Amino acid sequence: MGEVRIIGGQWKRSKLPVPDLPGLRPTSDRIRETLFNWLGQTLNGWRVLDAFAGSGALGFEAASRGAEAVVMIEREAALVDGLRASQKRLQATAITIHRANALNWMLACPDRFDLIFLDPPFADDLFDRALAAAVPLLAEGGLIYVESPRDIAPPPGFTAWRQGRAGAVHYLLLRREDNPVP
């Protein structure tokens, strides 16, 4: 069992357990630090969806930085148990955890989010379908963050506002073309 640490906010330096499961690849500290530099250090009032939560590194980081609500979706029971244990330990009342297939959940969700994290298992090649499911859930002015083993083309009407690469991981922050840069 490994671990990742929360890098900012109220739970800075808190550790999250990372079970040794095939395909589980938490977002690295370096990439999370870059992402939250892009987003700003506080997310006060934001509604966030972590659609393929895994270790919960992205969702817990958002909650640590003041997100009003963070919804985590994860299909693997062992990971859901770990997320709930971390939620309890940190007393993370802004976080809601659902055990579900993220694609199906997003397709049925009536809510809107200011920020959507999409980091599906690389081997499942769900990136295009996940993006298509996420777009209708985005609030006006919202952003979508994607991690992938390859370049991802923004969906129609979106632009890559910020992007980078760390080793084999491509990551980008998408915004609607009509959304002014904050």
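Second entry:
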Amino acid sequence: MTTTRMLQKETASESSAVIESILNQLNAVILGKERQIRLCVACLLARGHLLIEDIPGVGKTTLAHALARTLGLSYQRIQFTSDLLPADIVGVSIYEREGAKFRFHPGPVFSQLVLADEINRATPKTQSALLEAMEENQVTADGQTHPLPSPFFVVATQNPTYQVGTFPLPESQLDRFLMRIELGYPSARVEKELLTGLDRRDILAGLEPGIDNDTLMTLQQQIAKVHASDALVEYLQQIVSFTRESAAFTRGLSPRAAIVLLRSAQAWALMAGHRGVLPEDIQAVTTAVIAHRLQPRDESAPQTATEIGQFVLAGVPIP
């Protein structure tokens, strides 16, 4: 019996065991970042796109490549620079003399996992080339619509906005990312292992797919079936309402943010082997899902992602 057929009959705990094997493989590449990796996998299982914000050199690109190889996805890396054009991402139509017509040549976005490396080094015009792809899984060029592969994920890396040569991502672009995470510096123990162990590129080259596309899509379908009680949904709504009513933010979370927060909590619950979504499942993903969608009103409000998440969760009682 194939893994896909087995998953269709498995319980939540058995599905979480399959996911755990994926996490173990990723943790062998990116050391000491178990929680961040779990959030990454939850994001992709929830059919979302991922934004990784941090300084260069902490493993953002390596993580994206490891995700593609472990999940068995076709992979393309786009290096965003100030002179990158939208056509460099989506593709271009070229006139063919033999057929006396234009033929569309797909760009690197036509892959299952696309790494938009240093996305905020490109101009807003180029950044916007990804909006339709991320929202509708398609690209429109010269009046024709071209579907993207399924599944389709964008994993973008972003340099801190205080660094030279960066363009802030507009709110509409940020909202397309289901989660935003940071990797941070490794601990002293992990850094020593990085210095004395195998090169990460050599480990990446030896990675084998942990699942196939059918298994991945089966897991994604199971996400929507994870039960969320009325009390749990009301708790989520209270979190959303708190952000809208709080004076700390210029505006609150949108209905789309509420939907992806629930979907992320369902993914986290499935990964944990829970039969239904628990309050702690929502709390586990809240910071990654909402912090990049909220703009502090002034300097007296919470500023960092961690501060924003803690502020919101502390303001809503647990049911």
